[in-house]
Amino acid sequence: MADMIFTRIALDAAGFALYSAAVDQAVGVAPVQAGFLLLPGGAGASQIGVRRDEQAPQELSLSQAWQQPGYFLFHPQSQALPAEPADIAQTLGLTPPYATLRGVAWLWQAAPPQSWACASVPLFYFSPTSGQVAGSNGSLPFGHVDLVLPSGTQWTLSAETGQATFVGDGIALLRDSGQGTPLSPDAYRVSLSFDPAAAGLLRFTAAWDPYNLFGLFADDPQAPGLQGGELRYFHPDPQAPQGFAQLRYPVLPPLPPLPANDWPAFLLDCEMDPLAPLDGTRTRFLFLPQRLDNLASSFGRTVSGDLVTLAPSVPSNGSPAGLYPAARPGAAQAPAAYLAPLGPFVLTVPGGAAKLSCGTLGTEYLRVADGDILDFVPSMPACSTAFGTAMARRMTLANGADTKPLLDGPFATSWVRFRPGAATAMRGYYAQPGASVNFGRGAVSPDMRYPAAVSALVSTLASTTKSDEIPVAFPMVQYGGVFALADATVQDAQLLDGYEKQVIAGLRGALIRGSTPDRPVFVGEQGAPLPGTRTSTPQGLLVQLNSATQSTRAGIAAAQAPEVQAGTWQSLLLARSAEQTLSFDADPATGVVDAQLASTLMREQLFLVLNDWSRFPNITRMIAVAGFNFEIAPDVDATDRWRTVLVFKYATTQSLAALIRAPESWANTDYFIGDATRVTDTQSVLIDALAVAEKASSDDDDPFADFRTKAADPDWTGMLAFNAPINGNGMPDDLQMLLAGIDGQLSAHHFGVQVNRISDGADQEPQISESALFGVIYHHAATAILKRERAMPRSEQTPPDYAFVVEALSVAINQSLVTQFHCRVGMTINTLFGRAVTLTGADANADVPPNTVVVAGRYQRHGEVGTVTFDGGQHGSFAFNPDRSRIRVIDTFQVSGASLVPIASVPSVPADADAGTTITSRFALSGTLAFAADPFPGVTGLDLFSYGLPGAAPGMTTTGVALTSLAFGISCQLDADGKRIGLPQITADFSGLRATDDRSGRRPGALVRMLPLTLQAILHDEAGLDIKALGALPVQVPALTGVAASVPGGGGVAPMPTQVAYVTSKPLYALQFALPLGALGALADAHASLDASLIVAWGASTYTPDEDGVALFVQLPQVTAGAFGFNLQGLLKTTFSAANLGLVKTKNGPAYVLMFNNVALSVFGITLPPKVLADFILFADANDPGGGNLGWSLAATQTP
To answer: C-alpha dihedral over 508, 509, 510, 515, to 10 degrees?
Structure first.
């Protein structure tokens, strides 16, 4: 090569000049950049700083720099040297005088980034032309081994070749502890490269005794035997001396102990880079052409247990095999190394072709042939912080944080890269999860009746991209020598198996598949695809395979069906219930199930988390279980669809709970979830699900006992859908009506397949007869929206008159049957009989809004699907005037019972797939209505509404008018996904309201006790009672009009007297009483009672609508006379013009008097007596209140 040119890039006032070597553009970006630090001249420190610019020329050739005092520098290309040359001199520890200093240094940035570290060889020149040197030893560290260049080493330069040469007795590799035999290069010669493509690289050849080489890098050089050429993997372990445990997998055979060791010396071509001391691509010992028979090992096995031989190769063209120092834990966290293999190793397999086991399971293997190559790729990550005791310390990812890789540094090992040899043979990577193996007929031979494990061709091991012909590298170890280590180390079989399944196999499967995996093909024993058959797993998952040429998926015409390969997946059937199925179906455009999903499901120790539903439009997603319509996937247009998470767990080394907290163990998150932020969000959803289940353990009706057991059991495998939507359309009415009280989509906490019952179909292929499903629906209305509403000041809220909420719904399903059911619905009633009310005496519940009547549901199973009934006991009392600040006729309504029943479920029009359902139900109360005894200020003793006595003992129910069917109609609309649209519509429905007279609830001195009245009904009309339609006549109550009152004057003015009337002109509600007047007498054909009706009504006051007013009406017997009269003895007709009700106080007590004014008698239309005005009075005996006696009095006046 031409003489290297250094260009000056910095010159400081102290006379230090920094040069950088020109970059060879043909080489591209090299890992190391060369430079030169020119030191100030002069004999003493007084001359420092007097160098002039011409003494530090703009350029120096390699030969010129060789003649100058200074240091040749090598640093990583990615790290720029310090801007001040004097800082480099300080890092190197250089002190004046500088004129005689020479040396070589390798510099790199250390922590913190602004600081630098170095490895250097100081040289003191007596004669720059002679190359004779004297000075201190140079020591270059490579882990726990140093390359020592002792004092007195000769250093010569060949500018033409771009190399300097160190020659000197004592150049050797030594353990830093001084143990072991030093290893020296041939002729004690080491070359230093200035070639831009390999700047700073040290090269030499050597012939080393294997025992000495292995001992140099052994963990314990005093061990009885020495092992070299092995793979190692690491994981945190607080009990280990360095805090990390290691697992060892020999590749080379163990070295026979001395003196039996007869291995010849290794002839090696050595490369060592002080800037990459433990990087096998830059520091390595490559085998030179020689016999390597002793290094062939038989640690590999076929799936049938036959031995596979692996031997290092030194091809005539291409890189040879070799060894390199790989990073391992060292004492006191110091760097250390072990010898790992690199480069090509040739396979020799029994029969010329075989299935080479990749790990510990026979379902994962490589189809290989004699002469195929396993290339060991050096310095790949080998430490898993996700394994072992580190799991106990795992925390949730911060929002947007990247997941940790399954394998990472700081320790390293070799992975393998498969390259086919010259033999013609079938090759590929085959894998299935050991916990979910697919079995099918014809897997071994076409005439074999019983199913056997099929093989799944996952990858042909072709190049990863069209432009990249280098096959992918992946971790793989052989287990033939793990229990026969030369140094007698004993390894834990369970630990080895766990690490293989949890770490190595999982990562291997992901890497081989790559970002665009092949579609898995199920094949038989000989590798031929299985056409059109079906396979099943122990869990009962069923795969329908494509036939030889075309997809047979229903709905695709044969002429339009895409060409597909036999043995690929046409559908993945997860569960069946009657005629409903859950399945991932083929893409109509390709004829196969999503390749990423199918390929990933074939991974060993799989933990797949899926919620990017936009990638999976072809899903049959709904199945009915115990009356609930579960969906494993949300609608693709749902805004929160990512919260529905589908999990496949076929990992048996860790529990579901542990894997949720280890997202680095999740399969292909980029594809199945999304970016780092979405992964974090998804993990939060799953951790919340675990927390909900854990918190519920203290509930009396805890539904999660089975789930917690599964979540903590590493051996549990299966499928779970978290936050699985419940589609209300088509559900039973008594369950469907609950959706009116659920805001948003009802979803299951989790839902999964317990087991599928597999039977033979008509085609003798396996089919799912029926699925046993399990899950928990766990809904609580104490959501953010309720909390937000309760946090608002009362003045800022406008509460609706009514609200209906499912306060709690907890359903446990096991074996497709409801095993536990708990439901509470709440009806919030802020208005009754047109007035605001306050519920008192109900059980306090922080999760329930005020004025809410809560009813519990009971589930009764009838066959596979049960019914739910809602009714219940004591629920408190509604107070109409709790602070006595208003005029209210009603005092309380004490609730004694409540019920919720479905009315109708009608599919929306049009009745197509996008239509929903209109649901109606009725919430009804029963209880006791108590009226205020003296509701009107200034009016005493006039007790028109009569009912309402407290219980005989504290806490006993108030007596009064017994009401039933005080109902509220609830209706809502479901969309096509079975989710409620908007708020439910709730209206009071008093059409079925019934009132029952309770004589024990009548107050002393009340109207109903003083007149022989019998309660017949309670009337209502929100538009106002139609008195004319009732055929009734108003009854005036003088005591309620002209009542003296006062109006506050304000501003110091005295109150002003006024008069008020407690009447209403538009009554809405009324009690209707029967008032017996006698009988029709002997003139009637049959004895019949002659009864009038007295109607005591109330509504908003005519003058003060915020207060209540009263109206009375009388409905006289409708025999023949009409509204304003009645017949006596069948012939005498009576008529009158007005009626009044008064309260008369007698010495025996109050008496109520009903007076009819201007009564006239007529016979055949002739008024008798003529010109006489009569008033007719009805009254009862004050001495016998509540009796059946009734007195009549007639007062007549002659008119002119």
So the answer is: 120
630 and 544 in a single domain? The answer is yes
Cα(656)–Cα(87) distance, rounded to whole angstroms? 54
Average pLDDT, the chain: 85
Centre a 10 Å sphere on the Cβ of residue 626 and count the other Cβ atoms it contains. Answer: 25
Same domain, 1022 and 972: no
C-alpha distances (whole Å) from 145 to each of 155, 241, 427, 865 are 23, 20, 42, 74
Q: Locate tokens 């590298």: which residue?
A: 473
DSSP state of 118: E
d(CA 255, CA 1163): 140
Confidence band of 50 (pLDDT split at 50, 70, 90): very low
pLDDT (0 to 100) of residue 1126: 52
Q: Cα(1166)–Cα(1188) distance, rounded to whole angstroms?
A: 34
Residue 1110 has pLDDT above 50, yes or no: yes
Which of residues 778, 795, 828 is at a domain's end?
778
Mark whether 989 and 1031 lie in a shared domain.
no
Give the Cβ contact number of residue 925 at 10 Å: 24
Pick from 835, 1073, 838, 1034: which is nearest to 945 by CA? 1073
Q: Quick one: 1031 and 966 in the same domain?
A: no
What is the per-residue pLDDT for 1030?
83
CB count, 10 Å around CB of 174? Answer: 20
Question: Average pLDDT for residues 10-23, to the nearest whole number?
Answer: 88
**Confidence band for 1161, pLDDT divided at 50, 70 and 90:** low
Residue 62 in tokens: 């390699």
- Beta-strand (E) ranges in 551-676? 569-577, 580-585, 607-610, 619-620, 622-625, 628-631, 645-649
Residue 784, SS3 per DSSP: helix
Domain check: are 1067 and 1127 in the same one? yes
Quick check: is 385 in a domain? no
Measured in degrees and rounded to the nearest 5, phi and psi for residue 1001 equal -95, 5
The DSSP result for 1136-1169, as a single string, is -SEEEEEEEEETTEEEEEEEEEEEEEEETTEEES
Which amino acid is present at 333? Q
Comparing 312-326, 617-631, 846-860, 1185-1199, the range with the smallest average pLDDT is: 1185-1199
Answer yes or no: do 725 and 785 share one domain: no
Phi and psi at 273, nearest 5°, equal -115, 110
Give pLDDT, residue 550.
52
Q: Using pLDDT thresholds of 50, 70 and 90, give the confidence band for residue 784.
A: very low
pTM: 0.80
Q: Are residues 746 and 794 in the same domain?
A: no
Based on the structure, what is the number of domains in the chain?
3
Residue at 481 is within a domain? no
- Please list, residue by residue across 662-680, b when 16 or more beta carbons sit within 10 angstroms of its beta carbon and e when fewer do: bbbbbbbbebbbbebebbb
Q: What is the DSSP letter of 1012?
A: T
pLDDT exceeds cutoff 60 at 683 = yes
Burial of 221 (0-12, 13-18, 19+ CB in 10 A): middle
729 and 788 part of one domain: no
User: Mean per-residue pLDDT for 403-427?
Assistant: 90
Half-sphere exposure of 1095 (CA within 13 A, CB side): 25
Q: How far apart are CA 9 and CA 35, in angstroms?
A: 10
Q: Which residue in 592, 597, 627 sits closest to 612, CA to CA?
A: 597
Query: Would 1047 be classed as within a structural domain?
Result: no
DSSP H or E run through 778: strand 766-780
Task: Identify the domain containing residue 1089 by its residue range.
Answer: 1007-1041+1060-1198
Task: Decide if 154 is inside a domain.
Answer: no
Q: Tell me, what DSSP letter sits at residue 908? A: P
What's the N-to-C CA distance of the chain in angstroms? 152
Mean pLDDT of 988-1002: 91
Helices (H), 515-629: 595-600
The last residue of a domain, from among 743, 778, 813: 778
Q: pLDDT over 90 for what percent of the chain?
A: 49
Q: What pLDDT is recorded for position 1107?
A: 94
